[in-house]
Amino acid sequence: MPVDLLSGLSVALAPLLPWPVLGVLIGFALLVVLIAALRRARGTVLRLLAVLVLALALINPSLVQEKRDPIKDVAVVVIDDSPSQAIGDRRARTERAAEQLTERLKRFDDLEVRVVRSAEGGEAGGTINETHLFDALNRAMADVPRRRMAGAVFITDGQVHDVPQVPGKLADIGPIHTLLTGDRDEGDRRIAIVQAPNYGLVGKPVELTIRVDDMPGRQSVDAAVTLRQDGGAPGTIRVPVGRDVRVDLPITHGGQNVLELEVEPAKQELTLANNRAAVVVNGVRDRLRVLLVSGEPHAGERTWRNLLKADPAVDLVHFTILRPPEKQDGTPIRELSLIAFPIRELFEVKLDEFDLIIFDRYRRRGVLPQMYLENIADYVRKGGALLETSGQGYAGPLSLYRTPLGSILPAAPNGQTVDRPFLPTVTDVGRRHPVTAGLPGDRLDAPPTWGRWFHQVDVAPNSGTVVMQGADNRPLLVLDRVGKGRVAQLASDQIWLWSRGFEGGGPQAELLRRLAHWLMKEPELEENDLRAHVDGNRITVERRSLAPDPRAVTITDPSDQTSTLQLTDDRTGRAVATVTAAAPGIYRISDGERTTLAVVGAVNTPELADVRSTGDRMQPVAEATGGGIHWVTDTDSGPNPGIDVRRTQPDRSQTGSGWIGLRANGDYTVTGVTDVPLLPVGAVLALVLGGLLMAWRREGR
């Protein structure tokens, strides 16, 4: 049981007997001495001295001297490397303040200084959408006991987004000081997306809510906001400052619809990065309306119907000719259906409501007047989609090619058909087209693994792209763009053999799915396109082309800095490259002909929501830990620029005008102990015996 006397020096008690026994013996001895004192016996004082010396000997005190090595305290300097630190002179002030601070901390021999930056050790593949300085502090002191912490100094603009909700738990770390790198009374304008949906229906607008704020306070009545959708032509609207405003965004296509918003600069601006915002809304189709027009019945007709009806998102209208007008079989009128098929309603009134029209083995028989076929041709030119699968009738005089549809069909019949087994194959350009590239079963250096067909119409392409070929390399599948619409022509009616599993079947479902989506202009199936995919802070740029394109792309970052990126062609129509984004925001990518956008990070990133330098966020931490908040500009001048640093006792003030304190804990390790008995045995015996002899002598007189 040691008793401290001085630092490193203490008295240790190691009783020779257990304390209860020792107490009884000492008590009995003191009782005898007390009785002697009451009787006024001579030598009582000497007997008391002997008893006390004996008791002290039994307690066995010793002087313990510890050899101590002091342990250095740890101070952490956290440097804010977030994008908002790039505003104005903040970055230069930060580096200058960090250099001055570390130089002054070197003069303390009992202090270990650790410098950590907020950008180090962040989320893998992520972008800096928030400033996390306390995460950096925790990483730096992960292996340090709290009793060794002298404190921490944050060099930041004050926009810290991971301040603990209970700052009092940080008190055992020591004082946490903040050095602000911005200027007082800063102002800025920003535009924010208050509300935006993630999805919208193609063909219908979605409602967004935006807001323009001038900080601090309201300085303007209204501001001009420029809108640009999918990199198109810009438009301008004026919105009131400080109020929520609703804006309609038309969803023109499936996939990502990107709306860029940019507000004009205010009189006082810190950065223009938060004058821009972007909304990404994924366009989806509510229901796909398909009109299937079947000519003469055949084995593949049910395959078409089953394929389209199997998709719950498809509304199918099937117009089929079961009894052509020229058929005269003597059936009484009363036994025929008297409900007329709504031909006029389908092919004139509601034709534009269909997303896709399919002609399956149709030939002219007077059922559809020429006017309705002309309506279909106009429907395609205005943006509609048409798929024609040719039967034997396409090669004859009643071919659809000899109707107004011939002006939009890409392949003309030459009157011949091929009636022998052949294996459909993908052409070289077809291996670069997203409709047929990478079809299951296709092989580059060997015949495909799918089954054969037995009938093909011999056609000669007038326009479009031949992506599949059949017997003797004759065109089999031709894709073309007509006006604003698209047309696909399959020169055979035997794709149903694949669905029946003949000779192993084939990828009919995948091929027809891609074909339908390409006809309806799905962005993922564009054959000549430039797109960008974002994963964290990595931007993957992909260019689709039917011919190799050696051009590099230009990337414009949110700060309007440009760089070039060379793409690598993989011989499947795709040229790809990946780049790492340095900051969140909108990146514009162009190859000189096409432009696409990449939105990196959150749409409303907290890092850019408010870029003014302030101590409000760190004030609760300073109050809980005894730290201070100082402006770098206040200490950056004079003969000795920089904040002054002092070592302080834990119970003293930790900050003052122009200075900050770091706690001196005085922790140490014991490397050795010297134990010296206070009462040697000889001295104890001499004192006890001497006391007893003197007492006996005194008593004998």
UniProtKB/TrEMBL annotation:
Fetch the CDD domains from UniProt: A4_beta-galactosidase_middle_domain (cd03143)
Which InterPro entries does the annotation name?
Answer: Class_I_gatase-like (IPR029062), GATase1-like (IPR010768)
- Keyword check for Cell membrane: no
User: Does this entry carry the keyword Membrane?
Assistant: yes
The top of its lineage is: Bacteria, Pseudomonadati, Pseudomonadota, Alphaproteobacteria, Rhodospirillales
Q: Where is this region: Disordered?
A: 628-658
Q: Which residues cross the membrane?
A: 16-38, 45-64, 678-696
Q: By its UniProt entry, which SUPFAM superfamilies does this protein fall under?
A: Class I glutamine amidotransferase-like
- What is this protein identified as? Putative glutamine amidotransferase domain-containing protein
Positions of the Putative glutamine amidotransferase domain: 372-499
Q: What's in the keyword line of the UniProt record?
A: Membrane, Transmembrane, Transmembrane helix
